[in-house]
Amino acid sequence: MARKRTSRVKDKWTLKKWFNLIAPEYFGMAEVGMTPADDESKLLNRSVEITLAELTNDYSNQNPYKKLIFRVTKVAGENAYTKFYRFELTRDYMNSLTRRRTSKIEDVIDITTSDGYVLRVKPVTFTIKRCRTSQKKAIRAIMRDIVLQSADKNFVQFLQECVLGKIPSEIYKNAKKIYPLRRVEIKKIELLKEPSKAEEKVEEVKEAVAA
To answer: Can you give the pTM of this predicted structure?
Structure first.
């Protein structure tokens, strides 16, 4: 009777190396976690999710409900460097804002920042009570106007103003004149397209001249 050939099964985990995940420059290049890989090329495009509270070590306000999703774009040594990919509010927080006999007004707005980033922005407004269709239309128009006007800023400025609440506050201040509001948020921001290297260099020259 032939003996079965046995071979040692290698433990895949022993072959893996741990890499530090580094946030983008405009988020302080903070270490946002670690991830394993047996080949650094497998890290590229890997996603990492972190709340704003964890990133900034500030658990006040809505920071625990704001999620940032980064993607690995470069690996150097033991560090995996990331870029912004998406921002969104957590589902449980959004559910807590939705109430009966009130209106939820949403929009989807594609913008191009001054430095060439194409983003899809999804603002949302919650009213105190249910409002009329004409009032919803007017509030949606205000949301759109303010988001589009804010697109004259560069990518980092626009992102910070959305995430930290400046743009939602501006919408609230103007839209409450139409109907009493309970809350305004930027529900989601998606990166659709980055500028080419040539476009980035042109923007850097413009900023240097302006300075």
So the answer is: 0.85
Cα within 13 Å of Cα(206), Cβ side:
10
In terms of C-beta density within 10 A (0-12 exposed, 13-18 middle, 19 or more buried), how is residue 128 classed?
Answer: middle
Residue 201 lies in a domain: no
User: Length of the chain, please?
Assistant: 211
3-class secondary structure, 10:
coil
Residues 6+ apart with CB under 8 A from 160: 26, 166
- Tell me: the pLDDT tens digits for 52-91? 999 988 898 789 999 999 999 999 999 999 999 999 999 9
Q: What is the rounded CA–CA span in Å between residue 38 and residue 104?
A: 47
Decide the pairing of beta strands 109-112 and 118-127.
antiparallel
Q: What is the largest CA-CA distance in the chain?
A: 89
Domain boundary among 89, 124, 139: 89
SS3 192: strand
Are 22 and 50 contacting, i.e. CB atoms less than 8 angstroms apart? no
Same domain, 82 and 159: no
Q: Give the separation between CA 42 and CA 31, rounded to whole angstroms.
A: 19
> What's the pLDDT tens digit per position in 181-197?
999 999 999 999 999 86
